[in-house]
Write a structure and sequence with these properties.
Blueprint: E1 3-10, E2 16-22, H1 23-36, H2 39-51, H3 53-79, H4 87-95, H5 97-132, H6 145-158, H7 162-186, H8 204-220, H9 228-238, H10 242-274, H11 277-286, H12 290-297, H13 301-341, H14 346-370, H15 374-380, H16 382-399, H17 409-429
Antiparallel strand pairs: 1-2
Helix pairs in contact: 1-7, 1-10, 1-13, 2-3, 2-8, 2-10, 2-11, 3-8, 3-9, 3-10, 3-16, 3-17, 4-5, 5-6, 5-13, 5-14, 5-16, 6-13, 6-14, 7-10, 7-13, 8-17, 9-10, 12-13, 16-17
């Protein structure tokens, strides 16, 4: 791998070592960005348009620092384990097999949410584009074979490992990041303060409720935690010194976070100033994305072409990034169960990835046939995300002696954010 730059780390004993930033590091930065720019950025601007400026600003002010804190805490807490393999193995080392079994199921549900959302969008949007461009006369999404073929092909590519994904996803992710920025620029001529709802909710309680309902959209617009453990494990395999491996993982996460903050915020606010609150309400009621809405209400073909391209690229690359974490979660559950009843053989370890790929394909295809709303999925599954991403790392820091060195005020903030995410469905049920 070529060296793109370097930075320094102080190791135990006071020695300082320069750590090169290689193409391998850049590949993980790109995959983190690809994981983040998916369903969140597609739906977050709609929520901003519906809830207004002040609610959106408050949700973003909580969510974006929380994403940085929880990403660092997540990497540090998991990388401190001895073997640092899959998520279940790490939790087993810290808390034992029984806790690992329970938390692995919650982790699996969290990762499954992302895979279900991307699988549904890929299949339905792909079928729609084939119909729009005259390739097919009817939508293939309602058939049984089309979702199976699309998802099977995606899983097959994603199962090839991170180096293959670097080559496949890299150009897609760089292109879609450029489109995000260019779309924001393209909407600038249509900016108007008249489009922005500056009216605050009637009272403090209503304001808090609206912020909590908007929080998952803000978090999911830049979060990439699904890929952090696979990235962390990959660096541990590449580096003999765990401290250097952790440093490289934290550095890649930081670079991805900075790039996402700048690009996603610019796109979101450009959308907010370009599309009226009424149009955003219409999009939510019709279950269409912010990209589809921008192409609908802004004249000209440029935005329409860019929005369509971004939608396709976002789902493709996000699927690849999410599958790494999904595979990690499913493997952890299978291994946890097998280790309770039998000693695993080398042959079983070799065929396990293929079995997981087949099982994943069947599970995701069955879900697509159910045609569940992606936007509703983002809100209803926020408790599992809050538990896995926020509360479990905080609990580990307070429970496990070797992790107590990571205690800080940011841990309290991450825990508070996790509790807010868990409460989101309650306020959704109340009709806010």
């Amino acid at each position: 791998m070529g060296i793109l730059g370097s930075s320094s780390i102080e190791l135990e004993g006071g020695s300082v070592e320069r750590i090169p930033f290689t193409a391998y590091d850049a590949g993980w930065v790109v995959l983190c960005i690809g994981m983040a720019i998916g369903s969140g950025i597609v739906f977050m601007p709609l929520q901003m348009g519906v809830k207004g400026f002040w609610v959106s600003a408050a949700a973003l002010a909580i969510a974006y620092p929380a994403v940085q804190f929880l990403s660092n805490l997540y990497i540090r807490s998991l990388s401190a384990s001895g073997q640092c393999k899959d998520y279940t193995g790490i939790i087993t080392e810290y808390l034992g097999k029984n806790w690992a079994a329970v938390l692995s199921i919650v982790y699996f549900i969290t990762l499954t949410k992302a895979m279900l959302a991307y699988s549904t969008t890929l299949t339905h949007d792909g079928a729609s584009y084939l119909q729009v461009f005259g390739v097919t006369h009817e939508s293939l999404a309602a058939t049984h074979w089309f979702p199976l073929c699309v998802i099977g092909a995606m899983v097959a590519i994603a199962s090839c490992g991170e180096k293959v994904l670097f080559r496949v996803s890299g150009p897609l992710i760089v292109t879609k990041l450029a489109i995000v920025v260019f779309l924001g620029l393209s909407m600038m001529p249509y900016w108007s303060l008249k489009n922005v709802n500056f009216v605050a909710p009637e009272n403090v309680l209503s304001f808090i409720e609206n912020v909590l309902v908007s929080l998952p959209f803000a978090v999911f617009s830049i979060v990439y935690i699904q890929i952090l453990n696979p990235m962390n494990v990959a660096f541990r395999k590449a580096e003999s010194d765990p401290a250097i491996a952790t440093y490289r993982a934290l550095r890649a996460s930081k670079f991805a976070y900075i790039i996402l903050i700048v690009s996603v915020l610019f796109f979101a606010f450009s959308f907010l100033f370009s599309v009226s609150s009424q149009d955003a309400q219409y999009a939510v009621s019709q279950n269409i994305s912010a990209l589809a809405l921008s192409a609908r209400v802004i004249p000209g073909n440029t935005v329409k072409i860019l929005a369509t391209t971004l939608n396709v690229l976002a789902m493709l690359s996000a699927f690849f990034g999410a599958y790494l974490g999904f595979h990690d979660a499913m493997k952890g559950i299978v291994v946890n169960v097998l280790d309770r009843f039998t000693a695993r053989s080398a042959h079983l370890d070799r065929i396990l990835p293929m079995g997981i790929a087949i099982g994943s394909t069947l599970l995701l295809t069955a879900w697509v046939w159910g045609n569940i709303s992606t936007m509703a999925l983002l809100q209803w599954t926020s408790p599992t995300f809050g538990t896995v991403s926020c509360l479990i790392p905080c609990y580990l820091v307070w429970r496990v002696p070797v992790l107590r060195k990571f205690r800080s005020a940011s841990v309290w903030f991450v825990g508070f954010t996790g509790l807010m995410l868990i409460s989101t469905p309650l306020f959704k049920l109340l009709g806010h």
